[in-house]
Specification:
Strands 2-1-3-4 form a 4-stranded mixed β-sheet, covered by helices on one side. The chain has 2 domains: 78 residues, Glutaredoxin, CATH 3.40.30.10; 148 residues, Glutathione S-transferase Yfyf (Class Pi), Chain A, domain 2 (Up-down Bundle). It is an alpha+beta fold and 233 residues long. Helix 3 packs across helix 5, helix 3 runs antiparallel to helix 6 and helix 6 runs parallel beside helix 8. The chain is globular and about 45 Å long. It is built from 9 helices and 4 strands; from the N terminus they run E-H-E-E-E-H-H-H-H-H-H-H-H.
Length: 233
């Protein structure tokens, strides 16, 4: 059976990582049987991050490579985007979300002091007593460095969130009043968008990212619709 190695649940989400949520959501819409193995230490992954997949002894790291593998291995062409221009548009938005909005989400959790208070409160229970707090402070220190190295962490808070607001609004415009993003059917792209939007939507961090998302009714309906889809799958 397929084994998905991922970070534990948090904030009522299936994982504390949107990349893990992305893969698990894809497994559900693909109707593939799987089990999960919870990991706290990213060093256990082949590339030092989560998630990774173990399927029949083959280990595949990285959420995008995992989905590529599953589509090929299990003949899931019906979850692909057929139109070439839509494929290009999906790729551009995927990069914006995973290499752009992700760092805004990271900022809201780990750099923003108010967000980190909630992260520290809820995540420290994932670790043995007296270890969680200091360990999370160390993670925060490293992620602040990572955010500055990437560039977003060099901006002022209102500038960081202004960038995230434009990204979420762009996603809202792309969806419009459609049920799914492309070709009136669910595709691999929906796994990416859903994972990041539901993370912002459900986590108890009242960041500007969550506030702008709440002002996009089409995206809120989209999240709820996909929640119901996988609940009934």
């Amino acid at each position: 059976m397929i084994t998905l190695h991922q970070y534990p649940k948090a904030f009522g989400l299936s994982s504390l990582s949107p990349f893990c949520i992305k893969v698990e959501f894809f497994l559900k819409i693909a109707n593939l049987p799987y089990k999960t193995h919870i990991e706290l230490n990213p060093a256990r992954g082949p590339k030092g991050k989560m998630p990774f997949l173990d399927d029949k002894g083959e280990v595949i790291p990285d959420s995008s490579f995992i989905i590529d593998y599953l589509i090929k291995e299990y003949s899931l062409a019906h979850l692909l985007i057929e139109d070439a221009q839509d494929q290009a548009l999906a790729m551009a938005f995927k990069v914006m979300i995973e290499d752009g909005l992700y760092f805004g989400l990271l900022y809201s959790r780990w750099v923003d002091k108010e967000g980190f208070k909630i992260v520290k409160r809820d995540f420290k229970t994932l670790f043995p007593p007296f270890i969680g707090g200091p360990f999370l402070e160390l993670i925060r220190k490293n992620l602040i460095k990572q955010s500055k190295a990437q560039g977003l962490g060099r901006h002022k808070p209102h500038e960081v969130y202004a960038i995230g607001e434009k990204q979420i609004q762009s996603i809202s415009i792309l969806l419009g009043e459609k049920k799914f993003f492309f070709e009136n059917k669910i595709t691999y792209f929906d796994a990416t968008v859903y994972a990041f939007l539901v993370t912002i939507f459900r986590q108890p961090i009242e960041s500007p990212l969550k506030k702008v998302l709440s002002r996009c009714p089409n995206l809120c309906k989209y999240i709820i619709r996909l929640d119901e889809l996988i609940l009934n799958s």
